[in-house]
Amino acid sequence: MKIGIICYPTFGGSGVIATELGKSLSEREHEVHFICYNLPARLTTSAKNIYFHLVDVVSYPLFKFPPYTLALASKTAEVIEKYKLELIHAHYAVPHSASAHLAHQIVGNKSVKIITTLHGTDIRLVGLDPSYFRVTKYAIENNNGITAVSRYLAKVTKEEFCITCNIRVIPNFVNTSRFIKQSNPSLRAHYASPDEKIITHISNFRSLKQVPDVVLTFEKIARQLPARLLLIGDGPEFGRTLELVNRLSLQQQVTFLHQLDNVQDVLGISDLFLLPSEMESFGLAALEAMSCEVPVVASAVGGLPEVVEPGASGFLAPMGNIEQMSQYALQILEDKQMAERFGSRGREIARIKFSEEAIVGEYEDYYREVLSN
Ligand code: GMT
């Protein structure tokens, strides 16, 4: 198939999944065209069957807000025609589903089909805002196919947007060969001494990720046993988090790793992963941790119960309950057998339910189904 992928080229979950999906599809002999405003973080264009098309969002003094949505629609229409694409797969509804729909109208070619994958904040936060609600609902109802990354997200989308069209649940996936537990003593020694536990958190440091709760939970853990906290990622809450680390005098125990290309290396040496988000439609970082045999302590919100099996691969606590999260964390860190059992079950879940091979196959099946309608 000839497939166009529209996504945000950032380290965020939707961009990561879109990029990994495109790479995997290209290895399965599909021709994949990425259409983005930057080269996606995990993409190398030298790979076979992969093309990259830059969306150039031209500015003009009159524009207070450069019209990205239109530049994307224009570029998508151009790429559809030039490369005779059969399918556009947009990731993140706002504004990608609308731009893709517009491109479809522009080329007037009914044989190209549009699919959007809903990721989470595009629906629950941005899409529901009155500024974007009508256009998001319209695009969802008028695309040829819609997928959601969890049952939870499919359900809330239908309820909140009052839509009756089918939403196919295709969960996120992980490359279990790359995300694997590693015995990397030199890397481990770089971050911690042998008696210290390594606790990790990865996110885009937006307020809904509750990164300060990671620090507060860690502080309670570190009172009971020697531990280090590795914070991977960057974003709006970075300053507030740093300030909290300083206020609690945790500078020696907390390391900020900012944007990392190889998060799997750090997950591979971690003892526990914390994700206390206010909302999470899936929690890709938790899945990547599980694939590396790292037990997860997260909040019981959104689609996280579909990923983390509470009491088997980690624990889920009520959102904001730092006391409960730190107790769960200590329970795992102080019990070697439990930690190993949770780690193995996490890896098993990743391999059985969320492997790249199986889920990319589900996308291929869905593409064929949509193309045949
Ligand atoms: O808000 C974010 O965390 C970023 C966002 C994204 O699109 O990059 O993440 C969402 O999509 C991820 C990939 O499907 C999911 O794993 C995250 O759970 C989801 N974030 C939220 O629902 C908050």
Give a written overview of the molecule:
There is one protein chain. The protein has 373 residues and is of the alpha/beta class. The protein has 2 domains: 2-172 and 355-372, Rossmann fold (3-Layer(aba) Sandwich); 185-353, Rossmann fold (3-Layer(aba) Sandwich), CATH 3.40.50.2000. Helices cover 45% and strands 17% of the residues. It has 15 helices and 13 strands. It has helices at 13-27, 68-83, 93-107, 121-127, 133-142, 151-161, 185-191, 211-224, 238-247, 263-267, 284-291, 304-307, 322-333, 336-353, 356-372, and strands at residues 2-6, 31-36, 50-54, 87-91, 113-118, 145-148, 168-169, 197-202, 227-232, 254-258, 272-275, 296-299, 314-317. The strands form 2 sheets. A 7-stranded parallel beta sheet has the order 3-2-1-4-5-6-7, with helices on both faces. Strand 6, helix 6 and strand 7 (168-169) form a beta-alpha-beta unit. Helix 3 (93-107) crosses helix 5. The longest helix has 18 residues, at 336-353. It is globular, with a radius of gyration of 21 Å. The protein starts with a strand and ends with a helix. The model has no long low-confidence stretch (mean pLDDT 95). Bound molecules: ligand GMT. Ligand GMT binds at residues 12-15, 17, 92, 119-121, 149, 172, 204, 206, 208, 279-284.
Largest sheet: 7 strands, parallel
Order of strands across the main sheet: 3-2-1-4-5-6-7
What count of helical segments does DSSP give?
15
**DSSP strand tally:** 13
How many separate domains?
A: 2
Molecular shape:
globular
Order of helices and strands: EHEEHEHEHHEHEHEHEHEHEHEHEHHH
What is the helical fraction, as a range of percent? Answer: 40-55%
Helix-and-strand structural type: alpha/beta
- Give the overall average pLDDT: 95
N-to-C terminal Cα separation, in Å?
Answer: 15 Å
Assign the CATH topology of the largest domain: Rossmann fold
Give the CATH level 1 class of the largest domain: Alpha Beta
Percent of residues in beta strands: 15-25%
- Spans where pLDDT lies below 50 across 5 or more residues: none
CATH architecture of the largest domain: 3-Layer(aba) Sandwich
Bound molecules: ligand GMT
- What is the CATH superfamily classification of the largest domain? Glycogen Phosphorylase B
Radius of gyration: 21 Å
